[in-house]
Each structure stands twice: as C-alpha cells, then as structure tokens.
Design a protein that fits this description.
It is a single chain. This protein has one domain (about 10-84). The chain contains three helices and three strands, in the order αααβββ. It has helices at about 10-20, 20-35, 40-50; strands at about 60-65, 70-75, 80-84. It has a three-stranded antiparallel beta sheet with strand order 1-2-3, with no helix packed on it. The longest helix has 13 residues, at about 40-50. The radius of gyration is 15 Å and the shape is globular. The protein starts with 9 loop residues before the first helix and ends with a strand.
C-alpha cells in the first residue's frame, strides 16, 4: 500500500472526509427519510444528498428482508453504468 492511500472502514473515512459537516449531513438525510418516499426514490434522494459531501464513484445498496435475510431490490452504480 502506498503512503498516499490510507485504507480504513467507511464510517472512519467518512468522519475524516466530512469533518464538522457530519451532523448537518445526517440532519438532511433524516429530513429525506421523513418524506415518506418509495424505497427506490428514498435511496436515490439519500445518495444524491450523500454525494454533496462524500465523494464516491460506485455503490451497492441492497434491501434485505428481516425475516428471511433474502436480499431484494438492488440499486448499484459502478464506474461503468447505473443498475436499478
């Protein structure tokens, strides 16, 4: 690993990247969550809000049934294309 690139868990990285704006971002995401959006619209809105503060070029967001632990309704973006 090069000295220029530091690996860490996502929450730790976000804390460093977001700094003092973390509380503000969490508040904006909470507002989005209270809008009563459908599951896909909610994820699109939350991702758009996260992107204003946290830089990322790919994501995978899978919903999971709490009773069966089966994943469903994947939303993902790679550097190549958006998959909804």
């Amino acid at each position: 690993m090069s000295a220029a690139r530091r690996y860490c868990t996502i929450p730790t990285c976000w804390e460093v990247a977001v700094g003092s704006r973390r509380v503000e971002l969490v508040g904006r995401v909470e507002v989005i969550c209270r809008r009563g959006l459908a599951e896909r619209a909610l994820r699109v809105a939350v991702l758009a809000e996260l992107r204003t503060t946290v830089s990322f070029d790919a994501y995978a967001w899978l919903l999971t049934d709490p009773e069966t632990s089966v994943g469903w309704s994947p939303a993902a973006l790679s550097a190549a294309k958006l998959v909804l």
